Amino acid sequence: MSRFSESQDPLFQALNSSISFDFRLAPYDLEQSIAHARMLARSGIITGDDLEAIERGLEEVRAEVEGDRFEILPADEDVHMAIERRLTEIVGEPGARLHTARSRNDQVATDVAMLVRAHSLQAKDLLARLMGTIVELAERHLDWPMPGYTHLQRAQPVYLSHHLMAYFWKFRRDLQRFNFCLNATEDLPLGAGALAGVNYDTSRMFVAQELGFGGISENSIDAVSNRDFVLDYLSAAATCATHMSQLGAEIVTWSSEEFGFCEVADRFASGSSLMPQKKNPDAAELLRAKAPRVAGRLATLHGVLHGLPLTYNKDLQEDKEQLFDAVDTVELCLSVAIEMLAGIAFNRSRLAAAAADELPAATDVADLLVRRGVPFRTAHGTVAGLVRAALEQGKQLSELTEAELAELAPKLRDDSAAAEGAFQAFYEVLKKDSWLESKVSSGGTSLPRVRDQLAVARHLLEDLSDRT
Ligand code: ARG
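That is the input. Now the predicted structure with arginine docked in place:
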């Protein structure tokens, strides 16, 4: 029997049906249904025989799903109805008892929370591997000088290890964000019913334990309307994708002939159909391009949720395609980033040549003046004058003569002002490496500080692998 006097319009069905995308919830839906059925039996709501039939039937459905043999029928509106329909075909009446004390509203919220949990763990795993790859790369390129940039202008030299490790910390924060997603899925929605609770004194804690939830949602209205954990996942995923995009963009730039800092392995590059000489860093380019897609998923779900009245609204069905696409995109990009980075080759001499430009040592010259008692702001201006004089004559800073220095920056004169070598400290500062090793503050680029950083990073990675 049905409440309706006519069947659904195919156009409505096309809009309303979610089975084409929500079938991937099947493994979670099956697990959930087994836990729910066990609870029903323990609470005396169904018999032991019913439970046995339901468990046997659900295992059979699981085998069909895993073997790609599950047949979806046109009337199957979503994964929940499809599984229940098939279960009832297999075991008969007990199958029809499974939905006692449950609504699709708490059911779908539970499935999605389970999926978010599983994929947050997966993302954490991939991030830990990516972080490990970065540490190894940094250790292999520990003392390779390169220019550090601001505004994509050479600013101050740094070690390649230090530059690479910047990404380690970005990805570590991403990992923490996925940890937060795990917290956000701690409370079991199931048992909230359609919105108000169910007519049985169900044992929700039992179901929570069976399914690995930490507790139960305290408010049934909140439980069926809550999609915060999807927003949290999308937000973590969007930030993570943005970090991969920045990494990808840098590799694209560095692979250019103009920079020549690195070359990606052939297996992560493509050629041109027209120009035989070309090797394109496509993988890095696509890492760069995927980020806005993930951020778009987040923005879309905010759009769907904003202004929604409590409790369940069909709008909520729109959470899934956003979530699934973000999951697939981020997991693929992370897997690619790990392999692509592991196979990248850096060019030591190109990096060093770019870092050998003396102008980036200007800050160190200013600091020399500061040590002589000149206020930093004044020193900054004086050194800017030196830089301009050098540029105008097409010289390096160290090629400025003592006479020029005496005129433009008399304070640079050594304290023990013997006539000869009166500007010795100035010329000393401009010797390579001394600029790098002068960055002794915690978190700076000098080798001892990078080694400290790597030790902390190694420790964090060990902690992560201990916990899994
Ligand atoms: N396919 C639906 C969704 O994804 C399941 C819940 C349907 N609930 C309902 N009251 N129609 O949201």
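Residues 207 and 364 are 64 Å apart (CA to CA).
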